[in-house]
Design goal:
It is a single chain. By secondary structure, this protein is α/β, with parallel strands linked by helices. The protein folds into 2 domains: about 1-110, Aldolase class I (TIM Barrel, Alpha-Beta Barrel), CATH 3.20.20; about 135-274, no CATH class. The protein contains 11 helices and 7 strands. A 4-stranded parallel beta sheet has the order 1-2-3-4. Strands 5-6-7 form a 3-stranded antiparallel beta sheet, covered by helices on one side. It comes from Caballeronia novacaledonica. This is Radical SAM protein.
């Protein structure tokens, strides 16, 4: 609560991501949530899917969302990760959640990153695969528990290449983002995405390129790009060779935006994931 209050007084928007495990009944949900709202909380994001069901009751999620919707003005969203045989889907959640028409429900394919890469190796093939330009790099920076200011959502937080600042000590976030906008790697991730970089390096230097169907999404592609020694070895050379094409593509996008032919790419919000 103190952190929410501090962030609010500092001019930041605040969002809490939770499984809702604490909302064992309506009263407990109220006691835990309302003080945060009074401190300035603006958004609540609830994680729910097959992988959370082992640890949290769906009734807890419903309790939390009920209080958030009926007693606050919070923006509410539910994030669901879907594997090949997942029973919980966006459509099912929409049917079962209270006031679901006023809740943003986001469904993402399973990415083999973090604990999932160890615990879910036997999971069946994902039903969908979303690979392309990264919508989060620079636009959704993250401050990790280790003090790293990361350029994106931080799913693979120990990746040195994705750090804006390795040891954040309270520097101006906006100033650091301004520096990061000049980073060629971040630009390439933003306009084409990590899988395109993998494919380019693979084709240029004769490396094996995994099929798109083998990768669950951009975060998993980033993990393969930055944790695979073969691709890392050629990344700097690739950036040097692709510098002008990337800058040219960005200028073309800017021209299309100015002409009103495509939407303006979102600027970074004042909030930082933590």
């Amino acid at each position: 609560m103190k952190l929410v209050d501090f962030a609010t007084r500092s001019g930041y928007a605040t969002r809490i991501v939770t499984s809702g495990y604490f909302a064992r009944d309506i009263e407990v949900a109220r006691l835990r949530l309302l003080p945060l709202v009074e401190a300035g909380l603006k958004e609540i994001a609830v994680s729910w899917d097959d992988y959370h069901e082992e640890f949290v009751r769906f009734e807890d999620v419903k309790n939390l969302i009920y209080v958030a919707y009926t007693e606050t003005a919070l923006k509410i969203c539910v994030n669901i990760v879907r594997g090949g045989n997942s029973r919980w889907t966006k459509a099912r959640l929409a049917r079962l959640l209270p006031n679901s028409q006023n809740i943003d429900i986001f469904e993402s394919p399973l990415n083999m990153t973090g604990r999932a890469s160890d615990r879910l190796k036997s999971t069946s093939v994902r039903k969908s695969c979303e690979l392309g330009p990264c919508p989060y790099v620079i636009k959704s920076p993250t401050l990790s528990a280790d003090g790293h200011l990361l350029a994106c959502c931080g799913v693979i937080p120990n990746t040195e290449r994705l750090r804006i600042v390795s040891d954040f000590r309270g520097e101006s976030v906006q100033e650091q983002i301004g520096f990061a906008k000049k980073n060629l790697l971040f630009k390439w991730l933003s306009v084409q995405g990590p899988y395109s970089i993998i494919r380019w390096i693979g084709e240029r230097y004769g490396l094996h390129v995994p099929d798109r169907s083998e990768i669950g999404g951009n975060c998993e592609a980033c993990k393969r790009l930055f944790e695979g020694e073969d691709f890392q070895k050629f990344l700097d050379s690739a950036l040097e060779e692709m510098s002008l094409p990337i800058q040219s593509e960005l200028l073309q996008l800017e021209s299309l935006v100015n002409a009103g032919l495509v939407k303006q790419m979102a600027e970074p919000e004042t909030s930082v994931n933590a």
